[in-house]
Hints:
By secondary structure, the chain is of the alpha/beta class.
Amino acid sequence: xxxxxxxLALAALAPGCxxxxxxxxxxxxxxxxxxxxxxxxxxxxxxxxxxxxxxRVAAAHRWGLKDIPPAAPxxxxxxxxxxxxxxxxxxxxxxxxxxxxxxxxxxxxxxxFLTIDDGAEKDRAFLRMMSDLDVPYSAFLSxxxxxxxxxxxxxxxxxxxxxxxxxxxxxxxxxxxxxxxxREICGMQRYMEKRFGKRPRLFRPPYGSYNRATLRAAKAxxxxxxxxxxxxxxxxxxxxxxxxxxxxxxxxxxxxxxxPGQWKGTMPDxxxxxxxxxxxxGYAVGRLEDYL
Length: 292
């Protein structure tokens, strides 16, 4: 569709480029040469769109998708205001300016966000698939699962994936003291900086469980946002937070770094299930950090 629009734009604008000035293009029978810089620029743009579309078609076929996923939308110029979801507050949440806890980005864009937790499975086919399809996602890593192969996640990072905080040891945080929670969160911040060069601004508590001490510790460790999720996708099924089991614009989708040992399928199987559903419902996959 985008290629067609570009070609229509080229057809519409080329006559305008042929009137007057040193860039005039003389009409001729048959194929008119694109001598004018504006016409050549349009032709180059259309060619690039055509090549990008062809690559997406080939990748979708190669990975067994039912349809071609839409390209990720551009980052919004005006970032939406992120607030804590009603019912997810802790005592003194607003008064203490604690990080917002949310399950959806407030946007009218027909877009959803894929987030992947922990780091247990290091599936190289998954990296190839996501690179081929150019699908954005965000990773939330636990230190004890990453340390055996940080190179895998550096490859991910080099392809534009943002690596975020999911604690050092994946404990049930509300069962710990404030100091112990802070060690888990700040310790992972230091680990991420050492291994990947940057302290994350996003944190997801293990199991989605937190209390006021969790958010106080997260804030003290430099965390700005605590995204949870509205849906979870597995290799063989979806699960939903909302009773109507519907996707909505801005929904955050959770999955995990898992393989056949824990799932009925592989990570590429999970991505295929995810993309087939969201594409069929007219959603693109966005980059979560672009909206924050």
